[in-house]
Design brief:
The complex is a heterodimer. Chain A is mostly helical. Chain A has 2 domains: about 80 residues; about 60 residues, no CATH class. In chain A, about 65% of the residues lie in helices and about 0% in strands. Chain A has 5 helices and no strands. By secondary structure, chain B is mainly α. Chain B is about 70% helix and about 0% strand. Chain B has 21 helices and 2 strands. In chain B, strands 1-2 form a two-stranded antiparallel sheet. In chain B, helix 7 packs parallel to helix 21. Chain B is globular. Classes of the chains: A mainly alpha, B mainly alpha. At the A-B interface, helix 1, helix 2, helix 3, helix 4 and helix 5 of A face helix 9, helix 10, helix 18, helix 19 and helix 20 of B.
């Protein structure tokens, strides 16, 4: 990995942290918080402001190191060899799977998620894929609902399943 | 000794032994499952105690408690998902060891370290319960704040790579815990009109997202060639005696950290394991290998978090003060059973107290055999091809995130935390430090504000407490150490 790539990454993360931290710090002066915690020695914004000052200071150092070309560490992942399309697809699949839990129930949503994640990550053999995609969510569902008595969202079709 | 034999008689009954075995197995299994954790595990078995006698119910709770603390390490090692927050530090070296094919050895290190930690804490509990309980009473908000600040500063040494990035990740974790109700006034903060955030960010969904889902996302980005590069050894393997012998200092110190921190109200196994890990990383002769699958890292975390189990019972049993949610659940069960913890407990119910102590020894031995037997099943999970394993991990992570509160919003938190964890890994920020911050923040804020009330708003008066002074000075030295070390090495180079 060349140094300019590293500097860019350090700077990007530093600037991002600065912007987010500054946004949060600015929000602590929202008039809505003025009325909160009245009567206590230290209000609810006392501690968050201390944290955000430290946050901004550290983000400032990070940005400065990035801009001046002095990287802070050597162990970051090489971004050039990552397959971004697969990362984004997996994030979308997991997010949709999580959303679908409330609609088709835990077991069915997870069957689809297991299949989609496996295929996206490169597994194509149906003889193993199908039993795993059906069996694993059912085992997890059974352990949590029947043995541990947790309530997981059910489908509109099969009672508690 | 006069109480030991009657206590043994109570313990060695068939029903009590059966309860100990069943409780240990159940505790380990529930610890393995992400999201269940010790508190939920205890809550699940709580109704079973209603139909039991005093000793079996105490034994059941202790077995589930100790078993679940150990069980968390299994999933931390095998799938980088700590089954319980106490095992988060175990991921740092246990998972890399499993990834290079030595999952059986990693489980062996974790199990033996856990058992040693557990047994050590029993010795502490038996020998020093009243004295330690009295010492723990000296910890007011100022001392507790200073100790937690020290624990957080250890972030810098836990971090692999840059200390600045480690500290920034820790501060972000602390800040994320500020979302939701103010711990002292109840005022809602940083929700930006999102009602779902008004109860704050739950720890477990954030934790499984940051560790497990981010791993799934990151591995999705690397090309899978159709053959897994590493052949995982199935089973359970204990390292040779020579390996253990050269690590006795790490073991002893970790047990000490765990037992001492366990005694302090409100700190617990997570703090103990991270402080112990940080100390081992700073002082171990093999410190350069930390984060790559170094056994010292696994020992430090596991011996400490299991040593907490005995320590945490000290204030609960000797003073009637539960130090955390786990001991609070246990104490409520004791009260239901007609046992009142406190200074009179050792006088009024000595047989039960000693039966509890002896059962802890039995339970720790049982943990070894449950781990040995279960390892063959657990490690087979890693033989699954990577795409299938990652799909299974995603399912476990989502169910772990959901079951804590049964709130669908926690699934969003888990996925969001997964994306944040991915970004942190890509940027070289250590995710573990964010988790430490998230876990310790409420207590840090509460004790700081309580301390300022005690001192009429003067932070300088915090230094008047000798204990706090020691902790704060150590914190300052830890922060200044990298700068001093750099300056010292430069000076040495100039002299040469």
């Amino acid at each position: 990995m060349n140094s300019s790539n590293r500097i860019n990454r350090e700077t990007v993360f530093g600037v991002l942290a600065l912007l987010v931290g500054a946004g949060f710090f600015w929000s602590t002066f929202d008039p809505a918080y003025d009325v909160l915690g009245r009567g206590t020695a230290r209000g609810p914004m006392f501690f968050p402001r201390i944290l955000l000052v430290v946050w901004l200071g550290l983000a400032g150092i990070l940005t400065f190191r990035g801009l001046t070309g002095r990287p802070l560490d050597e162990g970051t992942t090489d971004l050039r060899h990552l397959q971004w399309s697969r990362i984004i697809a997996t994030i979308v699949i997991v997010a949709v799977g999580a959303w679908a839990i409330g609609i088709v129930g835990f077991a069915f949503a997870m069957m689809l998620t297991t299949a989609a994640v496996s295929i996206t990550l490169g597994w194509r053999r149906p003889l193993i894929l199908v039993p795993l995609c059906v069996g694993w969510p059912l085992v997890v569902w059974y352990v949590f609902t029947e043995l541990l008595r947790f309530s997981l969202p059910s489908s509109p079709w099969f009672g508690t399943l | 000794m006069e109480h030991v034999f009657p206590a043994l008689e109570l313990l060695l009954r068939f029903d009590t032994l059966l309860v100990a075995i069943a409780g240990t197995v159940a505790g380990v299994l529930m610890g393995v499952l992400p999201g269940v954790g010790s508190v939920l595990a205890l809550t699940v078995v709580l109704p079973f105690t209603f139909s039991m006698g005093q000793v079996p119910s105490v034994v059941l709770l202790l077995a589930v408690y100790c078993g679940s603390v150990y069980g968390g390490s299994v999933s931390a090692i095998l799938i980088n998902t700590p089954g319980t927050p106490q095992s988060a530090a175990t991921c740092l070296d246990g998972y890399p060891m499993a990834r290079r094919g030595d999952a059986d050895l990693a489980l062996g290190w974790a199990t033996v370290a856990s058992v040693i930690g557990g047994l050590f804490s029993i010795v502490v509990l038996v020998l020093a319960a009243p004295q330690l309980a009295a010492f723990a009473l000296q910890f007011g908000p100022i001392e507790t704040f200073s100790l937690i600040l020290l624990a957080l500063t250890c972030i810098a040494t836990v971090s692999r790579g840059s200390m600045i990035k480690g500290l920034l990740a820790g501060v972000v974790g602390l800040f994320l815990a500020m979302i939701g109700p103010d711990i002292m006034t109840g005022d809602i903060r940083f929700t930006f009109d999102m009602f779902q955030l008004s109860s704050g960010i739950t720890q477990v969904p954030a934790l499984v997202g940051i560790f497990a889902l981010s791993e799934v996302f990151l591995r999705a980005g690397s090309r899978w060639t159709g053959v897994d590069e590493v052949k995982v050894r199935v089973g359970f393997r204990v390292a040779p005696w020579s390996e253990w012998k050269k690590r006795w200092k790490v073991i002893l110190k970790s047990c000490g950290f765990g037992s001492f921190i366990g005694v302090l109200p409100g700190t617990g196994a997570t703090v103990a394991s991270f402080i112990s890990y940080a100390d081992a990383k700073r002082t171990s002769p093999r410190k350069d290998k930390f984060g790559t699958g170094e056994p010292d890292g696994i020992i430090a975390s596991e011996a400490a978090n299991n040593a907490v189990t005995g320590g945490a019972l000290v204030p609960t049993l000797a003073l009637g003060i539960p130090g955390d949610a786990i001991t609070a659940v246990m104490m409520s069960t004791l009260l239901i059973q007609g046992i009142t913890p406190g200074v009179r407990l050792f006088v009024d119910n000595p047989d039960i107290v000693y039966a509890a102590f002896l059962s802890l020894i039995l339970i720790n031995v049982l943990i070894f055999f449950v781990a040995w037997g279960g390892a063959h099943i657990f490690t087979r999970l890693l033989r699954l091809p990577e795409p299938l394993l990652m799909a299974c991990v995603a399912v476990l992570a989502l169910v772990g995130a959901y079951v804590v509160r049964g709130n669908p919003f926690d699934l969003i938190i888990a996925v969001g935390a997964g994306i944040l964890g991915l970004l942190m890994r890509l940027g070289g920020f250590p995710p573990a430090t964010l988790v430490i911050g998230l876990i310790l923040a409420p207590q840090l804020e509460e004790t700081l504000r309580q301390g300022l009330i005690v001192t009429n708003g003067s932070f300088l008066e915090f230094f008047a407490s000798p204990l706090a002074l020691v902790f704060l000075m150590t914190t300052v030295m830890l922060l200044a150490w990298p700068l001093l070390r750099k300056k010292y090495s430069r000076k040495n180079k100039t002299l040469l």
